[in-house]
Amino acid sequence: MGEDFLTLGVRLVATLVEQLQADALDRNISIADLLRKTKAAAVKLKRTDLIEWIESELSGYKDKKLPPYRVLHAELKFFNPYRGWCPIVGAPPTWHCGVPIAELLSLLESTNPQGIFVVSVSAQISSILCRDLGFVADIKQHVSRASVAAIIDAVRNAILDWALNLEAVGIRGDGLSFSPVETKKARGVTINIGSIGNAVGVGSFGDNARITARQNLNAEALAASVMKLVQEAERLVPNSDLPEPVRGEALQALAELRSAASERIPDTGRIRGALDALRRVMEHVAGHVIGAGVLALIAQVHPAL
């Protein structure tokens, strides 16, 4: 209890600049709270440029220009019902992320460290890409979780650097207030967010794009998903009117899948091979209702591989 009171006492006497430094270093302080406290300092120091940046981070950039840390590497892919997500060769390799930072944080907290974010593209861009592909497909941008997490770190680092630079030129404040001299000095202390880039790009949030998370399944979760596929396919295939050679090869592939998924430590490589074997067999009867059904089941598992 004594340590709690001591900590509280330090917080009460700390200046706003010192609080910003401490909060920027503390991962337990939410990025939204840190931005709001930074906004309080920016308002008191009459830094309208900084206020605008903070409001964009909190509310989203919409049609505003983006700082470079919000331009992320991305892979544009289309969904193939037989093979899962397939890359579109020659597509723009970046995603311009203007979504509010609290939404990004929520998505990060909802995924595992290997998760992938799937971002919708505009109807216009989708139409152009489908025309180039030669068929209609679901098209999304795939962005790594690490790239999105880097946005949070970039904002936290920028605020820490700014607070340290304020202190370096003698700006600390008195509690939550700053003197006229400090306010004048603060005009020359820049915040390092880099040069602002253009917000226009595939997947721009100016076109009501949506972002969702797709988990990369671990071996155990993948095995459980495959076992459900096997159970359903084993119910459909044996008594179907599929050609005998196809039915026999499909049952062999299903047996291999069941064996691979039943291992104490599932081998994802073995599971991948068995899924590919089953897919190749069923592609010969893709026009059959059972063939189409099994291929659809495979497609639900394949994107996780």
Notes on the structure:
A hairpin with a 3-residue loop joins β2 (75-80) and β3 (84-87). α2 (16-25) packs antiparallel against α3 and α11 runs antiparallel to α12 (289-301). The chain is built from twelve helices and seven strands. The strands form two sheets. Strands 3-2-6-5-7 form a five-stranded antiparallel beta sheet. Strands 1-4 form a two-stranded antiparallel sheet. 54% of the residues lie in helices and 10% in strands. It has helices spanning 2-13, 16-25, 31-44, 48-59, 101-109, 123-133, 145-168, 180-186, 219-236, 244-261, 268-283, 289-301, and strands at 71-73, 75-80, 84-87, 94-96, 116-120, 139-144, 211-214. It has 305 residues and is of the alpha+beta class.
How would you sum up this structure in a few lines?
With 305 residues, the protein is an alpha+beta fold.
Characterize the overall form: elongated
* Strand arrangement in the largest pleated sheet: 3-2-6-5-7
Number of strands: 7
Mean pLDDT over the full residue set: 80
- The total count of helices amounts to 12
> How much of the residues is beta strand, in percent?
5-15%
Radius of gyration (CA) equals 26 Å
Terminal CA distance: 50 Å
Which descriptors apply to this entry?
alpha+beta, five-stranded antiparallel beta sheet, 305 residues, two-stranded antiparallel ribbon, single chain, 54% helix
